[in-house]
Design goal:
With about 230 residues, this protein is of the alpha+beta class. It is built from 10 helices and 8 strands.
Amino acid sequence: MRILPESQGTFRWRLHYAAEEFECLTEQELKASDAFPSRPEPVNIDRYVEKRFLTPRYERLRPGLLGFTEFGPSGPIDIVISSELASDSSVLAKRRVRTTLAHEAGHAILHSVLYSTATTGALLRAEDATSAQRILCKEEDVNPARDGKWWEYQANMAMSSLLLPKRLLLTALAPYLTRVGPGERTLEPYVARRMVKPLSTTFDVNPVVVRLRLAHLFPALLAAQG
């Protein structure tokens, strides 16, 4: 992790994580909480969050707000998920709850340092030091990287690697990868399209999460999508 200057917004500095840091951090976190599956299957994200941080609360939130994480000087003190989302019994909604939980866990893993006693004065702008203890996760934040919300982008990266750990995803894809060089394999675009649905079922996530995860692990897929 590196700390870089930020010219505007809540934080006077921003955190930077390399791509492999997301993979290593999330795998270590799951293993430390005995939540890393031994084979490709759904990650028990509820168990991980409860064991590692705290029991999430479900309450009615304003429209468009999926959840939030509230921080204290020692880390997250509250994780809240929309009860309206949780009350929907459809597969799509249940998977969105899993995604939201993993997203909030991503904030807890990556961003507690922003609110710790040792760093709050240095990383938060003075006028926000007491009013910015919550990170709100909104449905409208569909492209946080483009909108400059680096903390939301990072939480999404952590979310996808928590729910589809790289090691397990590559195991599931092993029979379908094409060798392109010594020790290097890739996923052909037509194979990726065919694998979205079965991977969604295997890891119990919605197809959009699988597509984003595959595009991150195999950047050539983005170019193929035009």
